[in-house]
Specification:
0% of the residues lie in helices and 29% in strands. The chain has no helices and 20 strands. The radius of gyration is 19 Å and the shape is elongated. 54% of the residues are buried.
Length: 279
């Protein structure tokens, strides 16, 4: 079964306004240029970069190459969501143990994007974004997004589904679960957007919801939007809901609801298996 045939499970039509980031001033990328063995016009990032808010890194180079380094924004539960944008005129590559982490990660390239075998793009929603998108779950219920969240022991309600999986402009983040004390449970998954003529996914794209702690529901899966002429690679694309937490006795007895699945949108001409997708 192809990836396209599996998309239907993610489509639950509703309504949700997309989050529109406001970009702040970004630190200068620590680009190494004119490196031996690296093509001319390449911005090579080999040291970690951390920002405290929305940030757009337009390398203004033909190629942006991140090797073994982390590019991330601080996801603080008390602050708004954080969006990172990485762009290059021709290609963006994540190699080695490179990682990019934020609430929303937007990667754009004129020709190709490569997520290497051990590279990761991880997104999750901050607590600030909780409950704003749809009806929240009841106590200890799982958050909703592409699917409804699971209730706690079949008693309290899970969060409702929202959004439109057929419209990439409104695909957004997942909602968090809820604790028995009405505090926020596991975080919802964030949003990943990749746009290039060619995508090669050998590593991990994860918009998974987080697991709930004791008595707390899991967060719903987030969203992944891929726009390209072709998709290749043997990597994993995931937007699963997080597991519900154990009872307060801590005996491993699942009591809280798990988060609903997220959404995956593919706008592609050609898909080369076996890239794996998990809702």
């Amino acid at each position: 079964m192809t990836l396209v045939a599996l998309l239907a499970a993610l489509y639950t039509v509703g309504s949700a306004a997309p989050y529109v980031p406001v970009m702040t001033r970004c630190p200068t990328l620590p680009c190494a240029v004119n490196v031996s063995g690296v093509p001319e016009g390449t911005c090579l990032i080999s040291s970690d970069v951390t920002v405290g808010g929305d940030c757009s890194f337009d390398a203004s180079y033909a190629r942006l190459l991140i090797v073994g380094a982390s590019v991330q924004c601080v996801i603080d539960p008390d602050n708004p969501p954080c969006t990172l944008t990485l762009a290059a005129k021709e290609l963006v590559e994540l190699r080695g143990s490179a990682s990019v982490r934020a609430t929303t990660v937007d990667i754009r390239a004129g020709k190709s994007i490569l997520i290497g075998e051990n590279a990761t793009v991880l997104v999750n929603s901050s607590v600030w974004h909780r409950l704003a998108l749809a009806r929240p779950p009841g106590p200890s219920g799982g958050g909703g997004h592409g699917g409804v969240g699971s209730p706690c022991n079949g008693v309290t309600q899970g969060g409702e589904a929202y959004g439109d999986g057929t419209d990439p402009n409104v695909i957004t983040v997942g909602s968090p679960g809820l604790g028995a004390d009405l505090r926020v449970g596991g975080p919802g998954g964030g949003l990943i957007r990749l746009h290039a003529s060619s995508l090669d996914i050998r590593g991990l794209l994860s918009a998974d919801g987080g697991a709930g702690a004791a008595d707390a529901g899991g967060g719903a899966g987030g969203g992944v939007v891929l726009r390209s002429n072709s998709l290749n690679g043997s990597g994993t694309i995931s937007a699963r809901g997080g597991a519900g937490g154990d009872g307060s006795g801590g005996r491993g007895r699942p009591i809280a609801g798990s988060g609903g699945g997220g959404r995956l949108y593919l706008s592609l001409i050609h898909i080369s298996e076996p890239t794996r997708r998990t809702p």
